[in-house]
Write a structure and sequence with these properties.
With 440 residues, the protein is an alpha+beta fold. Strand 7, helix 6 and strand 8 form a beta-alpha-beta unit. The protein has a 5-stranded mixed beta sheet. A 4-stranded antiparallel beta sheet has the order 9-12-10-11. Among the domains are: 153 residues, 2-Layer Sandwich (Alpha-Beta Plaits), CATH 3.30.70.270; 99 residues, DNA polymerase, Y-family, little finger domain (Dna Ligase, domain 1, 2-Layer Sandwich), CATH 3.30.1490. It is globular. Helix content is 32%, strand content 24%. The chain has 14 helices and 16 strands. The mean pLDDT is 88.
Length: 440
């Protein structure tokens, strides 16, 4: 089952301007709008929260906005810069999925099928994405559903900052939402509202033929896409320097053993390309394009850069069960979406001392089965607070400067619930000489 994440950025232009100007709005500052030209008119392109609270909206004539809000702060909009920045954000989001694209002018879309388990599942991925964007200063809302259209609607009209639906038919999700959730043109939405259509449920209850005859195929095409009745493939962004190899098939393939055989061929080609650049793979994305225009993708990650063909083939082959070929796969693409330089390392310090064991293969297998966030080790941290005396670090991260103490000057862990102890002191008001806990 495909899982799609839609990220809605309702203040994208304003947030970008605020970041470029040095941070948050100072208390008492005038409301801000970004202005642009629409033909010969000057209009409001975006408004911050303070301006919107006073009734300013995108598309309003700038002269009217200045009358409504005296002392209004006006800056020039940068729509081309907004588009470029949104594309860069889509490239950044490739850390979560191999299939990412811009969604209109105010969001991005991700197909996380086969990749979400690496960051804690759907909820873990959405939470991490939400927190990272928030920390960067961007207001966002996230929707997760089985189709692009449903996820898009949830992100923009869902009840929570993160709206996630599972095992709920798309029609039930869409029915109570306004018709603007269907990604229809603004003029068409206005015309439908003038006829009394407010919610998607109002359209679902109508016969198809009259609406199609009057308004064309757009309404039902969008409805069918949102319901999953018509495929809507995502055209993903791809970095120009990314290493990618492809294999197209004259006849569609679907058998697991056949898929594994071609995985081995693609890995061989990819590793040869990596070797030419002196790089190793840290993350590989396998995207299978089906004959029904749908995509199936799987992702693997490695703890250290590697060009070990056998290891990569084994890790990808373990994921074949997650691929649903349906009527067949017509093209397979394997991309190294994260690479690092591979430098020669010395395995032996002498001819006598044994080499350090290489556990990276084991770490990779476990991480790709249970998720990278669930595989870690702990390192000591100087702190008087027991809960902060250790921290989680990646399983194969370099050794820390701090070392584990042989004798702890203070407790390193607190019990979930307090438990009574009996103490004995040699003299009143002296520290305890010993104590008894749980009879010991």
């Amino acid at each position: 089952m495909t899982r799609v994440v839609s990220v809605f950025l309702p203040r994208w232009s304003i947030d970008r301007h605020r970041r470029a100007s040095g941070g948050a709005t100072r208390p008492g500052s005038a409301p801000l709008v970004l202005a642009g030209s629409d033909g010969r008119r000057r209009i409001v392109m975006a408004a911050d929260d303070a301006a919107q609270r006073q009734g300013l909206r995108s598309g309003m004539p700038l002269a009217k906005a200045q009358v409504v809000v005296p002392g209004l702060r006006i800056e020039e909009a940068d729509p081309a810069g907004d588009i470029d920045a949104l594309e860069r954000l889509a490239f950044w989001a490739l850390r979560y999925s191999p299939v990412v694209a811009a969604d209109a002018l105010d969001g991005i879309i991700l197909d996380i099928d086969g990749a979400a388990h690496l960051v804690g599942g759907d909820e873990g991925l959405a939470r991490d994405l939400y927190e990272r964007l928030g920390a960067a200063g961007y207001t966002c809302q996230i929707g997760i559903a089985d189709t692009w259209g449903a996820a898009h609607a949830l992100a923009r009209f869902g009840p929570d900052p993160i709206s996630l639906v599972k095992r709920i038919p798309p029609e039930r999700v869409l029915a109570p939402m306004p018709i603007a959730a269907l990604r229809l043109e603004a003029a068409l939405v206005a015309e439908l509202r003038s006829l009394g259509f407010e919610q998607v449920a109002d359209l679902l209850s109508q016969p198809r033929a009259p609406l199609t005859l009057r308004f064309g195929p757009q309404i039902w095409r969008r409805i069918d896409q949102a319901l999953g009745l018509v495929p809507e493939p995502i055209d993903p962004v791809r970095p120009a320097d990314m290493i990618e190899v492809r294999r197209a098939f004259a006849e569609p393939i679907g058998a697991a053993e056949t898929i594994k055989r071609y995985i081995a061929q693609l890995v061989e080609q990819l590793c040869s390309r990596l070797e030419e650049r002196g790089q190793g793979a840290r993350r590989l994305d396998l995207v299978c394009h089906r004959v029904d225009a749908q995509q199936q993708s799987v992702r693997i990650g490695t703890a250290v850069p590697t060009r070990d063909r056998k290891r990569l083939v084994r890790m990808l082959s373990d994921k074949v069960t997650e691929i649903e070929p349906s009527f067949g796969i017509e093209l397979m693409a394997l991309a190294a979406t994260w690479t690092q330089a591979m430098e020669p390392t010395q395995n032996l310090s002498s001819l006598i001392d044994p080499s350090a064991p290489d556990v990276s293969d084991l770490v990779d297998i476990l991480a790709n089965r249970v998720g990278e966030d669930r595989l870690y080790r702990v390192a000591p941290v100087p702190s008087d607070v027991p809960e902060r005396s250790v921290e989680r670090i990646p399983a194969l991260s370099p050794d820390q400067e701090s070392v584990w103490s042989g004798s702890w000057p203070r407790p390193a862990r607190l019990l979930a619930r307090p438990e009574p102890i009996e103490t004995v002191a040699l003299l009143p008001d002296h520290p305890p000489a010993f104590f008894t806990w749980r009879g010991v």
